[in-house]
């Protein structure tokens, strides 16, 4: 197996987490975007492969009016992952996981306010939308932290314990 195939399989497994029963917002998509940005060998692949995996899972779950906001947030999180390319640490990954949760919360709920018609198109309506979403935010944080630890830690464990799975290019 190659490094690229290992990364693709990890991202697909993370996207699959959306399709199995889970607590609200406790999924791997934020961690998947951060991980993809940090590890894929090219920046183009780091955007395309996680976005494609997200889209495939959306095809199963259903398309919705706020998708553009979700994908913008997701792409921004991949860009955050780029900052981890040269230097990864538990503290940096944990901190960026929290930033990931916050960024996704802000952008996706802005999309709900702007597109769903559930809230008045006013400043107060936007505030109400964010306040209504707070009960779901803790699971977002827990999911991003858990799945970031799983993805980043899992990949580093493979590099350490089974580098032959990644091929010669990753055995630095």
Features:
172 residues; mainly alpha; 0% strand
Distance between the termini: 16 Å
Following the backbone from N to C, one meets helices and strands in this order, namely HHHHHH
Share of helix, binned? over 70%
The structure class reads: mainly alpha
Quaternary assembly: single chain
How much strand content do the residues show?
under 5%
- Backbone CA Rg: 17 Å
Biggest β-sheet strands, sense, barrel: none
Q: What's the number of structural domains?
A: 1
Count of helices? 6
Q: What global shape is seen? A: elongated
Instruction: Please tally the β strands and state the result.
Output: 0
- The overall pLDDT average reads 94
Low-confidence stretches: none
Give an overview of the whole structure:
This protein has 172 residues and is mainly alpha-helical. The protein has one domain. It is 73% helix and 0% strand. The chain is built from 6 helices and no strands. α2 crosses α4. The longest helix is centred in the last third of the chain and has 39 residues. It is elongated, with a radius of gyration of 17 Å. It starts with a helix and ends in an 11-residue tail after the last helix.
